[in-house]
Structure formats: structure tokens, C-alpha cells
Amino acid sequence: MPGAPEPLNPVLNIHGMVAELVLNAPERKNALSLAAWTRIPAVLRELTNVADVRVCVVRGEGGKSFCAGADISEFEAIRSTKDSALRYDEINVAAFNALKSLQIPVIAAIEGPCLGGGLGLALACDLRIASQTAYFGIPAAKLGLAYPPEALSDLLEAVSPSNAKRLLFTGDRISAGDARQMGLINETVDPSDLGERISTLCDTIVSNAPLSIWAAKHAINEMSAKAARDPETHRQNAQICIESSDYREGCRAFLEKRLPEFTGS
């Protein structure tokens, strides 16, 4: 309908003791606009007022995609300078931190593409359960971008440095089976069983002592946190990428559906 407002993205649904954060842009494989990234922390803050919720599930709307990452069609307009890129990364990281800081367990229910920032969201969850048809990747090198160090820290908590480099150096998409083998996800299930498996896992968590789970999550997060050793250097490296001709070429090539021609400048 002409003039109809955009649907809210994401949306929060609550079913008894289970909350759902639903990435709600199925027409673009649940890729997240800047507005959607910005909305995530605000939506999750609503859970602080719902005492009975004991677990949160993150999923994509439509039954075909978890999240294809950031909406790259916006990049030339809102992520074209070092300052705007830094601000964009800060908004991404705030969304990741909003998930990680929830006192309740967070489960990513993954099907279809889980790419770039979408994989960053999944890595910010405590558990990742994927359909066997899901696939994963970090296409930063195909766009001329530097992945935020906070997201790299989450990646390195899941996989070895060598496998992290494989994902970042190649930008290749990997299958759910390969992702399970390298530790990127916890489980794979038949596509028809994903909903039932998530429901069963939620039931198990809900039946356990919430204070015990909170204590475990808090302790593990504190013990495994890996602060960047030199955040200023990371920021400078990211700015070099943003100001490069390769970044502009990578975005244009993506939108024009062609292979980029990178020059290293």
C-alpha cells in the first residue's frame, strides 16, 4: 500500500517465559538497516521489565533466513567516511553487547544465510542451533571492510585463530556441517526439526534455577572476555579501509552483482 509505514524491525514477542527477538525483513533476507541495528538495544531493554522471562531466542522472520548481515545498499550514504563508519561500528557493537549483557540465556535459531553482521549477532548469543541448510560467512574482505575488534573477540571465543583467519581471509561461505566442526555453532538439526529443538532447549533452560544460570553466564562471560590489546590501532586500521578506493569498489561491485577489482589502495 503506498505510503504504508515500514514494519518494525526487529520485533519482540513474549510467550510465557520465552522471549523472541525477531529480525523482521524477510524480503531482504533479514539484512539489518542502520535503523534496525539501532533499535536492537532499545527492544532488548524491554525485557528488563518482564520478570518471568527466562530465555530469549533470536530468529529471522520468514522461515528462510537468519540474517544476511548489514544492508549494504545504505553504505555509500551512511558509511562513507571514517567518522560515519566508526559510528556505524559503534551501533553494531552496541547491538552485540545488548545480547551478551542479558542476564538470561540467548539462543540463536539459524536457518539460511547467517553472514557478516548477522553472524556477529549469532556469536553474541550464548548458544547457536542451526538448520542443516544454514550457511555462514564474513564477507568483509570482499567489501574492503575491517571487522570490528569486539566481533572478532566473539569469533575467537568460538573458533581457533586459524579458522577465524580462514573465514576472514577468504570471505567464503561455509556449510552448517563445517561450522559445527569448527565450533562456530553448537548443533545442527534437520530443517523440519529446528523449531522443535529450540522449543525443547528452551523448556530445559526454563525448568532450571534462573539464579544458577545467571551466575554461570556472568562468570563465563567475565572469564572469557578478551579486550582488544590496542583498540586505537584497530580503529586506525578500520579507518584506512573505509577511506580506501577498495571499499568504494567493493560496495559498488556488490550492488552491481559483479566481482570487485581490488587494487590495495
Top keywords for this entry?
globular; three-stranded mixed β-sheet; six-stranded mixed β-sheet; alpha/beta; 9 strands; 265 residues
The whole-angstrom Rg is 18 Å
H-E string: EEHEHHEEHEEHHHEHEHHHH
Mean pLDDT: 89
Strand fraction equals 5-15%
Strand order of the largest sheet: 1-2-3-4-6-9
Q: What's a quick, concise take on this entry?
A:
The protein is an alpha/beta fold and 265 residues long.
Describe the model.
With 265 residues, the chain is of the alpha/beta class. It is 48% helix and 14% strand. The strands form two sheets. The protein has a six-stranded mixed sheet, with helices on both faces. Strands 5-7-8 form a three-stranded mixed sheet. 37% of the residues are buried. The model has no long low-confidence stretch (mean pLDDT 89).
Topology readout:
Blueprint: E1 11-15, E2 18-23, H1 34-45, E3 55-60, H2 75-78, H3 82-100, E4 106-110, E5 113-115, H4 117-124, E6 127-131, E7 135-137, H5 140-143, H6 149-158, H7 161-170, E8 174-175, H8 176-182, E9 187-189, H9 194-207, H10 210-224, H11 231-242, H12 245-255
Parallel strand pairs: 2-3, 3-4, 4-6, 5-7, 6-9
Antiparallel strand pairs: 1-2, 7-8
